[in-house]
């Protein structure tokens, strides 16, 4: 068993309204932030779902010294405009070195403005102050093993006191959400009917994969989920599942064998979107 490691979070950020509305998931994000601060983490390293780069084997690291925020719909600006983002350029350089060493074609992006997939979570976890944060891009080929390997390359940072977070979605298909209540009444939590069976099934498959596998088995279970018969129903596009692969890489080495992930909170939105919140491991 490892001596001292931070946990890894796979968070489902859901719709933009998860920033403004109270939920069980939001409470859990805050709890994780409080614990991270109490443990004195050095910084946060995130892979989201909304930023990707093109080219085989390519990945980028956020190196904008003063990033702006892409605006979010359906949320009052007061919930986010004044929140100061804190980019961690020193750790960004460290990530670039580690990824290059592992054979990735990695570049700094000094123009990237942060998007709600990451800052929604940061605001919820750390409402008082953003910790030093580094964002790692996706690769636009959305290949699960590639993103798993990115997580694996950065895993040593867990031993150095960094908190690694993947922010995507367990069940996240915008084309199959039921949007009317949100569009008409700003009610993203209305569940006029139960979720459809494909959503329930894939949600269960994600929970089973994370809670029933550890170490390299976790990596295989998560990457294999993209072949699940319900995957394409649950994810019309692959982008929100890459964060899960990143987490499996970051928390799925031989040394992580025996450390199982747990479903800690869950919030259904828009009838068919399942925002499951998982944590793999615990502060040692
Ligand atoms: Fe998203």
List keywords for this structure.
single chain, 284 residues, alpha/beta, Protocatechuate 4,5-dioxygenase, Chain B, six-stranded mixed β-sheet, two-stranded parallel sheet, 10 helices, 8 strands, 20% strand, binds fe (ii) ion, dioxygenase, metal-binding, Aromatic ring-opening dioxygenase family protein, Xdiol_dOase_suB
Overview of the molecule:
The chain has 284 residues and is α/β, with parallel strands linked by helices. It has one domain (8-280): LigB-like (Protocatechuate 4,5-dioxygenase, Chain B, 3-Layer(aba) Sandwich). It is 34% helix and 20% strand. A hairpin with a 3-residue loop joins strand 7 (261-269) and strand 8 (273-280). Helix 2 crosses helix 4 (116-125), helix 5 packs parallel to helix 10 and helix 8 (216-224) packs antiparallel against helix 10. Bound molecules: fe (ii) ion. Fe (ii) ion is lined by residues 13, 49-50, 117, 240. Its cofactor is Zn(2+). This is Aromatic ring-opening dioxygenase family protein.
């Amino acid at each position: 068993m490892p001596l001292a490691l931070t946990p890894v979070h796979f968070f489902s950020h859901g719709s933009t309204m998860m920033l403004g509305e109270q939920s069980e998931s939001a409470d859990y994000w805050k709890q994780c932030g409080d614990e991270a601060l109490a443990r004195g983490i050095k910084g946060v390293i995130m892979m989201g779902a909304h930023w990707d780069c093109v080219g085989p084997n390519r990945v980028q690291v956020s190196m904008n010294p003063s990033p702006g925020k892409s605006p979010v719909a359906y949320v009052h600006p007061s919930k986010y405009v004044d929140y100061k983002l804190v980019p961690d350029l020193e750790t960004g350089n460290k990530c670039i070195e580690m990824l290059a060493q592992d054979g990735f074609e990695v570049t700094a992006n000094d123009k990237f403005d942060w998007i709600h997939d990451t800052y929604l979570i940061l605001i919820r976890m750390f409402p008082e102050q953003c910790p030093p944060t580094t964002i790692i891009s996706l690769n636009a080929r959305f290949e699960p093993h590639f993103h798993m390997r990115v997580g694996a390359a950065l895993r040593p940072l867990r031993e150095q006191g960094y908190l690694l977070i993947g922010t995507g979605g367990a069940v996240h298909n915008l084309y199959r959400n039921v949007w009317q209540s949100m569009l008409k009444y700003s009610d993203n939590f209305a569940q006029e009917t139960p979720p459809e069976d494909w959503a329930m099934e894939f949600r269960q498959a994600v929970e089973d994969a994370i809670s029933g596998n550890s170490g390299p088995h976790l990596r295989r279970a998560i990457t294999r989920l993209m072949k699940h018969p319900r995957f394409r129903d649950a994810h019309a596009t692959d982008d929100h599942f890459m964060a899960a692969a990143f987490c499996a890489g970051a928390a799925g080495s031989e040394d992580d064998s025996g450390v199982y992930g747990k479903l800690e909170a869950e919030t259904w939105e828009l009838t068919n979107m399942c925002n499951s919140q998982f944590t793999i491991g615990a502060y040692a």
